[in-house]
Predict the 3D structure of the following.
Amino acid sequence: MRRMLKRAVVLLLGLASLLATLHVARAAIPGIRGTQAVSSQLTWLRRVNPRAAPEMQRLFPEGEFFQWALSGLAAGRLARDGVDPADNLALLEEAIAATGASQVVDRFGAGDPLPHGAFYHGWRLLLLVDRAALTGDPAQRAEVETEARRILTALQADPLPASYPGRAWPCDVVVALAAAHRAAGLVELPGLPAVTRQWFAAVETHRDPSGLLVHRRGGDVARGSSQAIIQAFLPDIDPVRAAREWRVFKEQFVVSELGLVGVREYPRGVADDGDVDSGPLVAGVSASASAVTLAAARRNGDLELAKVLDREADLLGLPLPMGSGAAFALGLMPVGDAFVAWARSAPLGAALDVPSPQPWFWLFWLLALVPGVVALWMCRRRIAGLVALRRPGSAGRREECQHIKDGASEPGGSVMNETTVGR
């Protein structure tokens, strides 16, 4: 029984090592993950979103909204790129309907000038722009114009309109202003350049010592979870400023820790705890900020960092086939899949020549081999015996051992003295 158990353990360790090695090999494949990876994730998300969105709401304040909105934006981008336009437009329409449902809308209320706050109106306009661009429907274009003008009016009254009553995050306003700039590609917004200039001038007092926008109105420090969003949308507003701030962001927040590249929640030299915005921190690094930074890297043309974060998403997310699609983390956190699908669908900006830290993939190769090494150690005596039998002269010893064994089986041969055994 003990021997059988040992063999089972050895087999499991060997199999674990093989699977881990194949997983690291797959994640280590260089290059940007393309539309095929996004399509595979969306196939799964399309199926689970109706169930997953309410579940994510129980975990995160904007869980249900983000589950739909990010899936819709990824689908909209693929459709605009000509990838399965009918199916992806249908998912985009479903996302617009879901984010417009009363149980979702009623969670966001900040009053005038944006009835449901900067967060809701900004992300919602992004969805509406993609749909109107795909369909060309006059009524949908009119809806885009109305929503964009509402945002511009709000920014003229207050450069940092609230997302929730009494609480404002600059990153939400950047998304709203970026959505208005995307809308300007479809409809006339003659006041947009002036509002943009005024807005940048007004928020100069809301920057930290490095020059980046603070995390929250009234705060004094930038944070990775909000800066990642800002860096993903700033290129839509002012590409020149975006390139400048991107370099500052990388210096302050992009680090190599524990063999992986990630994004700190707080700038270098600042240590603090995680919260609902950042999620749990490991060595100061936020997983959510790191995922969103994949979108930011793509938008800013930092292909080197985008490749690194893409590969790490596969390494840490354990993407597995789920029916006809694929899901990360065994499908246990669908909003994470939505974030990665959206990030991977972000358009690539003009390439920047900026260095990026690299993960220690060699470390993960070694870790993948550890179970196999343990299995070999458990079999060391058997292996040593096999090696000894294959040495020169081992054939004679095998014959002699067999002769002794045969002699022991004959009548009167069961008793062997030390001399016989010694031979």
User: Anything to note?
Assistant: DSSP finds 18 helices and six strands in the chain. Strands lie at 254-257, 260-263, 281-282, 285-286, 320-322, 325-327.
